[in-house]
């Protein structure tokens, strides 16, 4: 019996527990209360009890974790509260897998703050010029995107506005070393699909790149609160592969991290289409 059972009797919680998102509540209950405290969990359960039964559940969860709205990530009540990683992390290249749509949206936001005319910005042309195929990694030495970021003056802009999920490869200097197919990364990392479940996880166009985290950014282990309404996340500090690739990548239990976003100038590789 859980000390939270009384809070889970509300219709909202019962509906979630009986759905494919039930794992979300289980993750929260099981999360280390050194970081996601009992009072924080109760805050969420009381909030869920106030759901009107009509509004979009995913957005309702997102609104809770966005508190206080409009504040910087460092001031959020519930995000980025996990265990802090030691300083050795700053000597390692980490990897990031981003949706193509999300990356392009953030890039347009950065460009809109300078003199680049967004009306002339062509997503398809940009993709063809700056995103390379995985098989071309060893054939391309120049960093085309970093040159572009330097020329346009966005090197010191954040690459996104929300918390950045990243992973540590098996080699400190090469995040991708040993991976048979870089296109398998969404499966190896257990990334979510359009509805944050495992369904259609491979239908989202994505890119990947490596980078260094600057020392002024605190790197942490993600918590159930960072994962939010995403049942594919599991505790333990390592990414869990989807069942389709578990047998091929049993050794690839990548350490996963979360932190405030880095800058474009911190990218160390090409932008690779996956």
Describe this structure in words.
- This protein is of the alpha+beta class and 274 residues long.
- It has 2 domains: 5-75, no CATH class; 87-273, no CATH class.
- The chain is built from 9 helices and 6 strands.
- It has helices spanning 11-17, 22-30, 38-49, 57-65, 100-112, 123-130, 144-152, 185-188, 224-227, and strands at residues 94-99, 131-132, 164-168, 206-211, 255-259, 271-273.
- It has a 6-stranded mixed beta sheet.
- Helix 1 (11-17) packs across helix 2.
- The longest helix has 13 residues, at 100-112.
- The mean pLDDT is 93.
Spans of at least 5 consecutive residues whose pLDDT stays below 50 are none
Overall shape: it is globular
Instruction: Give Rg in angstroms.
Output: 19 Å
State the separation between the terminal residues, measured CA to CA.
44 Å
Mean pLDDT: 93
| Count of individual domains | 2
Approximately how much beta-strand content do the residues carry?
5-15%
**Helix content range of the residues, please?**
25-40%
The SSE order reads: HHHHEHHEHEHEHEE
Structural class assignment = alpha+beta
Please name the defining characteristics of this protein.
274 residues; alpha+beta; 2 domains; six-stranded mixed beta sheet; 9 helices
Structure, briefly:
With 274 residues, the chain is α+β, with helices and mostly antiparallel strands. The protein contains nine helices and six strands. The chain is globular and about 60 Å long.
Secondary structure blueprint with pairings:
Layout: H1 11-17, H2 22-30, H3 38-49, H4 57-65, E1 94-99, H5 100-112, H6 123-130, E2 131-132, H7 144-152, E3 164-168, H8 185-188, E4 206-211, H9 224-227, E5 255-259, E6 271-273
Parallel strand pairs: 2-6
Antiparallel strand pairs: 1-3, 1-4, 3-5, 4-6
């Amino acid at each position: 019996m859980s000390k939270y059972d009384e809070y889970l009797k509300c219709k909202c919680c019962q509906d979630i527990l009986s759905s494919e998102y039930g794992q979300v509540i289980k993750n929260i209950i099981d999360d280390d209360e050194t970081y996601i405290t009992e009072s924080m969990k109760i805050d969420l359960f009381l909030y869920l009890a106030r759901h009107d039964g009509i509004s979009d559940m995913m957005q309702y969860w997102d609104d809770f974790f966005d508190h206080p709205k409009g504040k910087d990530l460092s001031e959020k009540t519930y995000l980025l509260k996990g265990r802090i990683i030691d300083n050795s992390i700053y000597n390692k290249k980490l990897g990031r897998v981003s949706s193509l749509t999300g990356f392009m949206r953030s890039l347009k936001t950065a460009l809109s703050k300078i003199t680049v005319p967004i009306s002339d910005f062509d997503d398809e042309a940009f993709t063809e010029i700056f995103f390379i195929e995985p098989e071309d990694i060893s054939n391309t030495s120049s960093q085309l995107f970093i040159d572009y970021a330097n020329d346009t003056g966005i090197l010191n802009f954040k690459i996104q506005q929300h918390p950045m999920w990243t992973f540590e490869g098996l080699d400190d200097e090469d995040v991708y070393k040993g991976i048979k197919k870089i296109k398998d990364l969404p499966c190896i990392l257990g990334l979510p699909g359009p509805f944050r479940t495992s369904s259609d996880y491979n239908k989202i166009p994505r890119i990947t790149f490596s980078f260094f985290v600057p020392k002024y950014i605190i790197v942490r282990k993600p918590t159930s609160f960072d994962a939010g309404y995403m049942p594919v996340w599991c505790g333990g500090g390592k990414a869990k592969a989807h069942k389709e690739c578990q047998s091929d990548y049993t050794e690839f239990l990548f350490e996963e991290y979360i932190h405030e976003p880095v800058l474009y100038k911190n990218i160390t590789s090409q932008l690779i289409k996956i």
